[in-house]
Design brief:
This protein is an alpha/beta fold. The chain has one domain (29-239): 3-Layer(aba) Sandwich (Rossmann fold), CATH 3.40.50.1820. It has eight helices and eight strands; from the N terminus they run αβββαβαβαβαβαβαα. Strands 1-2-4-3-5-6-7-8 form an eight-stranded mixed β-sheet, sandwiched between helices. Helix 6 links the parallel strand 7 (179-185) and strand 8 (208-212). Helix 3 packs across helix 4 and helix 4 (139-150) crosses helix 5. The protein is globular, with a radius of gyration of 18 Å. The N and C termini lie far apart (63 Å).
């Protein structure tokens, strides 16, 4: 009986791992209208997608979670563009179309790559450099929060189901001008506690915490809570005024 139970758990784990690998290895067809190349400091080319509303406006960089790629944000991007945002996403190293070896433990490259992507976004002629924001999901929370600490001009930060390290929380605490939106699922393990900790550091009165029902992690929360996407976009619009 015990052997059968262990065998069952092993089988389920194998299925979960296989699905995760399949999700990471999904390839999307080329999109010449939006695909961009972002050079990293060490010469690696980060593959990204840039979307413009067709007129001058604020910009937001979105960093995907570490079991997906830049297309994790495809469901949110149309709403942001419709609201007037220039949006940039990119594949972290080892994900999607970007070569290399990356992941949640590759902080040195991840931070440099985030800086390169942020600089690329800010360099677009129609992007208002006075109205820039960043967001991340899961491991992307760590990298986007760290990015904010290196760019004091950033107006808003979006954190979905992830952990902001001590340095990033200290920066949030010492920067009242930075508004933070945080969301996590109430039954998502440590997600809610991590996001609450990050939001508790913010002295900005416009910062907002959203705890949703269910177990969704990162962008999966958009499927579990139909109002989350609209709430997030509306909040970003208010910060970009």
């Amino acid at each position: 009986m015990l052997e059968r139970a262990r065998s069952g758990r092993s089988f389920l784990l194998s299925v979960v791992l296989a699905l995760s690998v399949a999700a990471c290895s999904t390839r999307h067809p080329p999109d010449p209208a939006h695909d961009v190349d972002i050079p990293a400091p060490d010469g690696v080319v980060l593959k990204g997608s840039y979307y413009s509303p067709g007129s001058p406006g604020p910009g937001v960089l979105l960093i995907h979670q570490c079991n997906m790629d830049r297309h994790a944000w495809d469901g949110l991007i149309p709403d942001l563009v419709s609201a007037g945002f220039h949006v940039l996403t990119f594949d972290q190293r080892g994900y999607g179309d970007t070569p290399g070896k990356g992941g949640a433990g590759d902080a040195s490259h991840a931070n440099d790559d985030a800086d390169a992507a942020y600089a690329f976004l800010a360099s677009r002629p129609a992007v208002d450099k006075r109205r820039l924001a960043a967001g991340g999901a899961s491991c992307g929370v760590t990298y986007s929060a760290s990015l904010a600490s290196r760019h004091p001009e950033m107006k808003a930060l979006v954190l979905l189901s992830g952990w902001a390290d001590d340095k990033a929380r200290a920066y949030i605490r010492s920067t009242p001008a930075l508004a933070v939106f945080g969301a996590a699922a109430e039954r998502g393990g440590s997600d809610a506690a991590d996001i609450r900790e990050a939001l508790a550091a913010s002295p900005n009165p416009r910062s907002s915490l959203r705890i949703v029902s269910g177990r969704g992690h990162g962008v999966a929360m958009f499927d579990e809570d139909g109002s989350l996407k609209g709430t997030l976009v509306k909040w970003l619009v208010a910060q970009a005024r």
